Amino acid sequence: MNTHEYGTVAAPVDLSAFGHDPWWLVIGKALAIFVFLVLTPLVAIYAERKVMARMQMRVGPNRVGPRGMLQSLADGIKLALKEGITPTGADKPIYLLAPVIAVVPAFMAFAVIPFGPQVSIFGTRSPLQLTDLPVGVLYILAVTSIGVYGIVLAGWSSGSTYPLLGALRSTAQVISYEVAMGLSFAAVFLYAGTMSTSGIVDAQQGAWYVFLLLPSFLIYVTAMVGETNRAPFDLPEAEGELVGGFHTEYSSLKFAMFMLAEYVNMVTVSALATTLFLGGWHAPFPFNLWDGANSGWWPVLWFVAKVWGFLFVFIWLRSTLPRLRYDQFMNLGWKVLIPAALVWVMVIATVRAFRNEGYNTWVVLLCVALVLGAALLIVLAGTYRGRRRTAALVTASGTLPFDAMSGGFPVPPLPGQKLPGQKLPGQNVPPQRRTDVSDTSEDSHA
Q: Could you tell me if 159 and 259 lie in one domain?
């Protein structure tokens, strides 16, 4: 059995329960996972539309079925029966293959997600998990990374400008946020002593990692929203500037496959967050006070409830936050999440090294406080210098200097910048009236 305590050396995780299921049980597990991942998006789409309507004081779907419950099914049937249109300039083989590449890895990632402990299935003792690997979390990270190829190939093969721009955005987005996501995983690996999903769940019997590794949890939650192209990080699908993004030229069943891949990816990252930080299938408080809460089929209920908690957060964010500007999005990934994840991994590694050497808890806490304090001072000093530099430039020139062609291609000015020759607000107002607020408002009405 694995352990999360630093003072002991973690024993190898026992994976002997996997790989011995009869063929019919393997097929049954795979089919159950497939049905779960197909039905969950149907319910999630309906829940998203109703919850968003509630938050925005609207009604939402209320026509098809009782309270509109069959609206998602009706939309799916409509998409499947619509005429599929292929653009003339598209690279047809890749154009048709891209939705398949996007949706298949989303299903494959669930192969190593644990739903529960060992149970009896028609007289055969088997864990509620299709399989497990010594590097199960890395398998999920690798498989989900393949899904972005579907988005990139869809944008490139469409033969259109806007889908190509959406595909390029998605590439930069995945590269930026998977680095931070991988670093948040590293802290879990150091604490649990294993990369196996079942081993990580077993290591959280005493305390969930959301409490022990809170910075890693916050970094992962932010990165998983960026990974799934969901608001406020849905820049590859930005309707305001890219029409529909990478899937602009797709219709009918091919478009439905992209939508299915997005929602299945949401379920996958939510299940992974549950596995790594919320104890997996272990019962939450106060249900864990019951002796039978973590045995039998009850853990499936706890696991699904935690996954739906994350799905609600996805819906909540979409209903609440506006879409980020692209430079803000990149700055968040490269200048905030990745440095914070690096510092936190170093803190966890330092704590583990000290505990393995036999130092007491107070020495470890003092070292952690010194490291975090030094990192905070560096961040504050850099922010202060940057603001001082910006204030000096604004004071000297009246506005931030801006060269639209400095990067080799034209870019629009950011807030506080002006194009060469552009007049500042109030520049033509006579000096005696420029400081009069009431006159300025009268001029605007005039």
A: yes
